[in-house]
Protein 1
Amino acid sequence: MGKIRYTIRLYKAHDLDLITFAETHEFNIVKAIYSALVSFSKKEAFVIDIPPRKHKNFLNDKRVYVKTLTLDDKNDAKAIEILDKIKQGYRNNFLKNLLRQYLCNPISEEFLNDKSEMDYFYTMFSIFKEGKRIAKAGKVKKKRQKKELNSFFDSKIEKKNEILNEKQEIQTQTDDYEESNKYEENVEVIENNNDDKEITDLFSQILN
């Protein structure tokens, strides 16, 4: 069986809704595009379930995100037939817009002044979802979720250890400083005691 690969490009200037959604949620965007395309080829409609958020903030540091969609020439023949009817150079745009139709989520939380208001928009978006089944297309596998979660906690533990090490270093420096001052005070007391003894001895000699 042969494999046909299609390049998916998400551009920061045009696809920020999909980029932010994919980067801030447990969401496999290639798997979601595949599900949308195959379902469309079968004239099946559904709405992609909104997956859980990731334990990290979105860092918008890329201008282009590149993914690869792989189709099987036998199992996905209908989907390939649809893409063959579209000119090269336009398939990427078609696939992204098709995903948006199945996602029914025009904006990401990152667009809002107050992210807590996303529930308000989810309620508003329900008009696009009424009467359609909800599917967990694009769901990330548990192993990947566990790996990302472990990575998140590892970074938190590493940061905590750094803070503890800094506190220990500061405490050590403080202890050293206090010990040094204590030694200087003791020396000063001894020297003062010696001076007092010399004065007392001299005074005794004068009286005798």
Protein 2
Amino acid sequence: MKTDKHKLQAALVRSFFDAFSSGVIDCGQGSVQERRQPQNVKRAMLDYYEQIAPAFFETVFFPLAVIHSGYEEMERMVRKAHQQRMDMRSMLLAACGSEACYEALVAEYKRNFSALLEGACPSVAAHLAACAKQQEGEGIDTDQAIELTVRAMVRAYASGLRLAGGQQLPPGLPLPLAPRRDERAAPRREA
């Protein structure tokens, strides 16, 4: 079974913002209802405005590179980035594989971040409605898509917790850690 790469990319962005903001909000004071009030969500995102882009990059670079290029190409990209001291934008563009995919990533980033600045992460229904408008494209193995998305959500939530708990992301360009070759899931065979 295959999952559309463009829809998966949009799901990764939404998942990042949902999980990251949840991590930040969960570290806040007061009841869950108080912390989830729109003005408190907005304030929390503004408090960490400068750290959101690096946390986003750290979270989604690896899954995007794997989705659009595969593991081997992702490893080549990381080596090249170290050698050429590429910035986050250049690396995300490389991970997306095309200007069109990168522009879609930026648009989804802006849509989700704008929603948080209005006080809430886009609902799953709103996200699915936006994805339904996209044309079907090339697919990626659904099991791999699930693994990449869950990994990104956990990493984003942990980033939110770390930042709200007073730990900063390392200075410089944070390069995401990819699983070692022996940790990668072997391709699943369909019965």
Protein 3
Amino acid sequence: MSKSKAVAKVNKEKTALTSAGALLGRGFENVDMSTVTMPRAKVMQGLSPELQDGDYDFRQGDIIHGLLMEKLPEKFIPISLWDSNTLFLPRDTSKHKEFFEALGIEPVDNLIICKSLDAKVTQMSAMNYKSCNNCPYKEFGWDGNPNTPPLCDKTINVLALFEGMDMPVVIMFYGTNYKYGRRFRDLALFSGGDLFSKKYKITSVKESNDKGTYFVTPVKPAGKATEEELALAEEMYTRFANVRIDVDVDDEPEAEVEAPEY
């Protein structure tokens, strides 16, 4: 299919324009699309609850679609990139007392203590922080000890369209996987052109340290997008260009990564 025909095919489906600038099908004219919650790509680790569910046949290292509960293909087209910050409540309840004392706040039951979708302005914070700029917990040495790692998870997010799938998903690079997100970001930046003009391949690789064994997800180039893929990716980019994307996080990073977050 030629690029002009592929673009025309996509344009035919563009029927409604919301105030957020997202192109949608008919019937969504009155829906607030300023913020949407997207499913994420999840890496199956030793503590992942999906491995204990008899309805699925996942293995450690599998990368799955968190909503469709299907194993994802290896190749994807990145649509957009953004940073976010999230401060999670520790999974280990024995650490809660020390955790809240360190923050200087009263205990709360929230899984997420503080969150910023753009790593700038907070959307919710039990500590009443309005901005990430004046928050010490995203940096090393927040308690005066330069070796103390951050409490807040810095995350590189990728809105991705996987090969053969119509529903996008967010790949999150945080904790022990954060360095691979930076490498992918730099690779995409220096390769030139639109982010979504090229395809990439994501795989899971086992790593170990003194805390245990876990899987990380390095990314490698996988060639250029086809004309039809490029047209679909460009339509997807336009749809979400002015939309703030939240990610469906139903468990904390420690439940997936059996290793120190930094």
Protein 4
Amino acid sequence: MSAYNNILLTVLLVLCSILVIFLIVICIKLLITADKLNIILTDVEKKLGSVKKVFSLVDDVTDSLSAISDAIVSKIVGGLGSLFKKKNLKEEDIDE
């Protein structure tokens, strides 16, 4: 019986050693993968920063174009409004 216990204990120790080695290898691979992921995320962050600048530039350009077009439209509407006011004033003078 003692021989069976020794054999069983030896088998369990060998299996535990294999399990520990396997877990160490898995942890090392996970660390390498995490490092690669960190490098990729850093690169993506840099690229998003440059894209953010482009979108900011486009936003500034559209804001300025909108302001210019609003100014032009207000000038045209003001000119047309003054033209119709003069026309209405002349028609009222003729009616009197």
